[in-house]
């Protein structure tokens, strides 16, 4: 079964700026796939379309058999229940505890938001939150305020929060771009291990080629809003990198393409 289906997606801004031009691909359940591309290639627009923050001008996106329809907010919430998102900007609430941040991951599963507050959460939710914290190796920090954590710890807490959803798909947008190399490897190891042990489909946007080759089975490369290549990561070599990125190679995304704004939108839904 396909976990993700993108069918002839086209996204046009201001009736003339084409960000995506007929993008199509499918990703099977349990696959680990990375999206590659130069700045302006359409990666961020594709991610926003997959997560329902952008509505395609043409075409469709289906996650777990449900079409992503930004125009129907209740339908979109239902679609997202089994889709975990990991952002570069972490998106934690700094002035509350680690435990409370993880409990917030259950917001889509309760009728009333206060049911995820630590004072009112059920024993079942509290137990699950501690299990998720234990899985990322940070149960001992459950009572610490989020703003007292390192960057790597914050991303691991964000992953624990995401695990509260019991996701079937993980969408990760530059999950290690804000981290030092050691913390980045730890986060990637964690994501890869969780996806493998639970057979979760993992789709990531990355710009580090060595990381992509180590942690993904397959890549989809975008160029000028179109699918430039879709293949096993083993075919990536210097010639391919030059063809995709140019002689200067991949660069960090500029500030206006980073996913912090998406995280803010996610909180409002």
Structure commentary:
- By secondary structure, the protein is an alpha/beta fold.
- It has two domains: 1-82 and 169-269, Rossmann fold; 90-166, no CATH class.
- 33% of the residues lie in helices and 25% in strands.
- The chain contains nine helices and ten strands.
- The strands form two sheets. It has a six-stranded mixed sheet, with helices on both faces. The protein has a four-stranded antiparallel sheet with strand order 2-1-4-5, covered by helices on one side.
- Helix 4 packs across helix 5 and helix 5 (151-163) runs parallel beside helix 6.
- The longest helix is centred in the last third of the chain and has 18 residues, at 181-198.
- Mean pLDDT is 88; it is low at 252-269.
The share of residues in helices is 25-40%
CATH superfamily of the largest domain: P-loop containing nucleotide triphosphate hydrolases
CA-atom Rg in angstroms: 18 Å
How would you describe the shape? Answer: globular
Strand content: 15-25%
- Which parts are unreliable, with pLDDT below 50 for 5 consecutive residues or more? 252-269
- Give the topology string: H per helix, E per strand: EEEHEEHEHHHEHEHEEHH
Average pLDDT reading = 88
Query: Structural class, judged by helices and strands?
Result: alpha/beta
Main beta sheet: strand number and arrangement? 6 strands, mixed
Strand order of the largest sheet: 6-7-8-3-9-10
